[in-house]
């Protein structure tokens, strides 16, 4: 995908009619050769800009949902893709859908065709599409994928909404604190130094802290820039990703949200593969392909090895320590009763609903905590600045 470009062409066919269209290809010469094979006399060919915003998940979900509806109506995959290409308003999606249809007509599977576009179709999509191909229920898997993506998007929006207010308040608090430190405190300190009276310990501590912050402002900014640079350079390093995931999972509120989201994704794919009659170990392989975090991939890889060696599914998942007791109990019940697919589906629904409820309650948890922290910071600064005023009367009378 990174080496392909979008080309806009126009030309005349053998009958002299004007034709135009778009095409994805690596270079200009390949496009010219392709059009020559189609007996198009090229008039113009130019490279079009690609809008990365159109590759976001919501656009792909809309296309996938429409495609699943067409499949349910009885159309074949190439026919559905061609019809969507004619109706889509964006040129880059038109060219992509036509190219996918051409790839399918050449004998490729749908999942293999999507794999050539990693910027558009993430690993979860490929695994779900492959599951649909194996089971013959591609339309059902597409609908499940769209539903899962919509739930994930709603969760992200709820978290952003819950964090927006605290971030605004914290930003305003930081601005007020910096204004007090750099503008107000120096004036108060100069006034207090004109009187021969000791300052309260709280005021001396705040002034000393402000002096340190003023002297260390530049080194602190440089240090933070270096930390951000190092974190940016390590954002794809497997070791750092594993360590960061463990830290996030250990946080009180965000850890529960992240764990619930991951468990919902894992059990959704496993339930689909089980209900389609695919072996559990093969379903685990499909789940591993949907996960981008090495930490969770390692957990499933160890579980896969232990199950292969004869351990039960519940015992293998329990060894990881990341699956709650409820998950282990239901999976054990499903193994014994032969209703593992139902239990996995129930777990997927449970974790999805629980994560949504936790996201809804995130604001209720953060706002009181934020008020306490903000009140303490502003209160300490105000008290520290105005506490010496009560002693200034005695100091002024003594000076007379």
List the defining traits of the structure above:
mainly alpha, cell inner membrane, 400 residues, T2SS_GspF/T4SS_PilC_CS, transmembrane, 6% strand, Protein transport protein HofC, extended, Receptor-associated Protein, 3-stranded antiparallel β-sheet, T2SS_GspF_sf
**Number of extended strands:** 3
Number of helices: 18
CATH class of the domain at 254-360: Mainly Alpha
Secondary-structure element sequence?
EEHEHHHHHHHHHHHHHHHHH
On the 0 to 100 scale, the average pLDDT is 83
What proportion of the residues form beta strands (DSSP E)?
5-15%
How would you describe this protein?
This protein is mainly α and 400 residues long. Among the domains are: 5-49; 54-148, Type II secretion system (T2SS), domain F (Receptor-associated Protein), CATH 1.20.81.30; 254-360, Up-down Bundle (Receptor-associated Protein), CATH 1.20.81.30. Helices cover 74% and strands 6% of the residues. It has a three-stranded antiparallel sheet, sandwiched between helices. The protein is extended. 24% of the residues are buried.
């Amino acid at each position: 995908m990174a080496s392909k470009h979008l080309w806009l062409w126009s030309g005349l066919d053998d009958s002299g009619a004007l034709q135009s269209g778009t095409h994805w290809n690596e270079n200009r010469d390949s496009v010219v050769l392709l059009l020559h094979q189609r007996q198009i006399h090229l008039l113009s060919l130019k490279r079009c800009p690609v809008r990365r915003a159109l590759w976001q998940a919501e656009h792909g979900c809309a296309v996938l949902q429409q495609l699943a509806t067409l499949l349910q109506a009885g159309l074949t995959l190439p026919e559905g893709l061609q019809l969507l290409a004619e109706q889509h308003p964006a040129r880059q999606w038109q060219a992509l859908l036509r190219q996918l249809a051409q790839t399918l007509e050449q004998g490729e599977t749908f999942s293999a065709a999507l794999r050539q576009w990693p910027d558009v179709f993430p690993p979860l999509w490929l695994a779900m599409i492959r599951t649909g191909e194996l089971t013959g229920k591609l339309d059902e898997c597409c609908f499940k994928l769209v539903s899962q993506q919509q739930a994930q998007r709603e969760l992200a929006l709820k978290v952003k909404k819950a964090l927006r207010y605290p971030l605004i308040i914290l930003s305003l608090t930081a601005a007020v604190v910096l204004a007090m430190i750099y503008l107000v405190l120096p004036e108060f300190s100069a006034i207090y130094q004109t009187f021969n009276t000791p300052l309260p310990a709280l005021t001396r501590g705040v002034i000393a802290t402000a002096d340190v912050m003023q002297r260390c402002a530049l080194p602190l900014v440089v240090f933070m820039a270096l930390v951000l640079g190092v974190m940016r350079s390590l954002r794809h390093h497997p070791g750092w990703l594993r360590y960061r995931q463990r830290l996030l999972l250990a946080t009180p509120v965000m850890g529960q949200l992240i764990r619930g989201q991951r468990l919902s994704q894992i059990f959704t794919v496993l339930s689909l593969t089980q209900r389609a009659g695919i072996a559990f170990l093969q379903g685990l392989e499909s789940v591993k392909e949907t996960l981008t975090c090495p930490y969770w991939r390692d957990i499933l890889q160890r579980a896969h090895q232990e199950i292969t060696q004869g351990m039960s599914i519940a015992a293998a998942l329990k060894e990881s320590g990341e699956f709650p007791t409820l998950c282990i109990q239901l999976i054990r019940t499903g193994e014994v009763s032969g209703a593992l697919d139902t239990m996995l589906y129930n777990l997927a629904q449970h974790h999805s609903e629980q994560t949504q409820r936790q996201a809804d309650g995130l604001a209720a948890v953060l706002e009181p905590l934020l008020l306490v922290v903000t009140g303490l910071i502003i209160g300490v600064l105000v008290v520290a600045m105005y506490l010496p005023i009560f002693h200034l009367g005695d100091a002024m009378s003594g000076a007379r």
